[in-house]
Here is the input.
Amino acid sequence: MPTCCRSGDGEGQLSVASSQLPEKSKTVAAIPTIGVLAIQGDYEAHARRLEESGAKAVLVRKPEQLDPLDGIVIPGGESSTMLKFLERDGFLEKLAEFVRVKPSFGTCAGAILLAKNVENPAQKSLGAMDITVRRNAYGRQIDSHIHEVATKLAGGPMEMVFIRAPKISGTGADVDVLAKDGDEPVWVRQGKAMAATFHPELSADKRVHEEFVRMVRETQGDL
Ligand code: GLN
Here is the structure.
């Protein structure tokens, strides 16, 4: 019998008496403050969904606004245009540092920015997730579409709106696929980073934003 974890009396209690354990600190359930990068895309809709999901949302247009945030949402748009904007005033470097330590959620172009590798064509990114993303990967005929897709969440299939969407063409071993549309991963998480190739802010279903707010609270130690 291993000696590490049991007391010697054979009754199977933990060997550390509860009086020796540090007193559990009381955590007050704080409302997380989540930024929404407000360069392009429907950042207002993201902010509304976040507030409906129990967070305080802040529109972010300057690098110094990142400092007090508990997490960030990077919306859709055109990732190359967003990159151009971010390449001024050290915003890109500051955002890369932010997503290394705090929770982030990228949708569509935001997912492209969070990826480690970008194809079609290759471009700079924040490298927060071990995924390869292929831009504009659906042919012209179906470049925008809506599908009902099963996810790992309770509550049945989810409406997903795809607009000139990328495809996640590769996922590292630590990436959890939360939803697949056919064979394609469309919603993934790795640690404190999450990415979706669709636009959850455009559907009435709040589950994706609720999941991100839950992630942020989890990293705050509220759960
Ligand atoms: N096609 C865009 C890109 O490559 C992404 C589209 C979107 O965010 N809806 O950046």
